[in-house]
Amino acid sequence: MARTQGSHSKTTGPRVREAAMRLFARHGFAAVSMRQIANEVGVQAGALYNYTPDKQSLLFDLMREHMDALLAAWQAEDPGGDDPRARLEAFTRFHIRFNTRRADAVFVSYMELRNLTAENFEAVTEMRRVYETRLEEILCAGKDAGVFTLAEPRITAMAVIALLTGVNTWYREAGRLNLDEVETLYWDMVRRLVEG
Predict the structure, then answer these.
(1) Could you give the CA distance from residue 165 to residue 169 in angstroms, rounded to a whole number?
(2) Which parts of the chain have pLDDT scores under 50?
(3) Using one digit for the tens of pLDDT, what is the confidence trace for 162-182?
(4) Does the global pTM surpass 0.85?
(5) How many whole angstroms separate alpha carbon 38 and alpha carbon 111?
């Protein structure tokens, strides 16, 4: 089968993923057809199968890529060391900054979990557990050092992530507060949450 005129594998593949992410975030996975994705990219529907076997695989790949990027970015930014407060502040600021730049990916990663097959769901939720565990380890270190006062580090980690991810629902770049100010406000809330 001849490639659609103007279609280039190195550019079309990423464009397919970008279009799918945008459409899934706007309309929901179930409401978007492969034909709509193809129209958005400007290729014939059959051409999409050069880049993904099916819509389910495309959704899973988008979620996995997002989680891979999140885990790698935090690993690169984690200051490490023996100061759990400094690490928690770094995590707070990192999570907000990383996710506000990827609002569609965050929305799809949370809202479309229900549309994954059981196997794909387990793979994505395991990656999420790995990320949550990174935060839980910081909280446990702070608790052990007597810096943080909290009864359930695992539940606290999930609550902190939910709080920080919520920024995506309201933050706008042209809004009253810039991102640095938002990060500082949220760091103050997180700090008060864990320091009692």
Answers:
(1) 8
(2) 1-7
(3) 999 999 989 999 999 999 999
(4) yes
(5) 23
